[in-house]
Amino acid sequence: xxxxxxxxxxxxxxxxxxxxxxxxxFLLGLFLLWRIDSPRVERFRSAVVDTVVPNMDWAMAPxxxxxxxxxxxxxxxxxxxxNQELRRELQQMRAWREAALQLEQRNAQLLDMARVRLDPQxxxxxxxxxxxxxxxxxxxxxxxxxxxxxxxxxxAVMDGLGVAGRIAGVGDRSSRVILLTDSNSRVPxxxxxxxxxxxxxxxxxxxxxxxxxxxxxxxxPGDRVVSASDGGVFPPGLLVGEVVQGSDGRLRVMLAxxxxxxxxxxxxxxxxxxxxxxxxxxxxxxxxxGTPLDPVTxxxxxxxxxxxxxxxxxxxxxxxxxxxxxxxxxxxxxx
Length: 335
Description:
This protein is α+β, with helices and mostly antiparallel strands. It is about 35% helix and about 20% strand.
């Protein structure tokens, strides 16, 4: 028995060496064949690939199926995580909705108790954004609504969330909107909660600049920016964006309007504020030279002269009769 095992080992060892040598030569030849740059060899390689690869689909089927199963499992995991996150957000939104309803009811009760009169809600006209026909404005769009729809020059334009610009040119069937990012745009704004007033100036960049701020140290990135009623440009309280710190160190505003998708815009109908030209009788208005004006006629106010005052006093004041003085008649008779 030991002799037979030794014979088998002696016989298998040369065969193993021969197989390894043939395999090494085959791999070396295949490597050289794949590295030779020749048209004939290229055609041969193409023929080998066309013959071998289609017949190897059965061998790759388990690997392909396993890869699909792994990808499906990963996709299912992502979907499950997103579903759980959406459930949490929905629960939070329900809580916020309930709180908003309660606050709305409380606000209505307080307004009714205080007899507060509110302005009517702003109405709007929705227009479709058309291609810009070219103009001196570098940041502007055209809308398919105009004077026939009641559009007035200067009205505010919103994209549904924030202010996008204002009307700067009205035609019969179209109107032009100058955007807040345009270099010609100047809009008064208010920064909350500090209450600082500033001027939003466009510079043809996505984030306009805040200028003429009273106290820049009171502003912080993330502060809410709304429109102000200064100059009668926009109705007050419209959302504009939030304060950000620019790369140049200047305070800028990240606009709430999505300028990448301005497909539909809303034009707010706003009434001009009532102007009181005359002051009351308590305060007399002054002209450019400082002369008091009559609040009723608007003519220079001239007070009565001393002569007129004396005449009036003479006419209106009756003489006081002399009272009898005891002993006065006797004294006169003695004299």
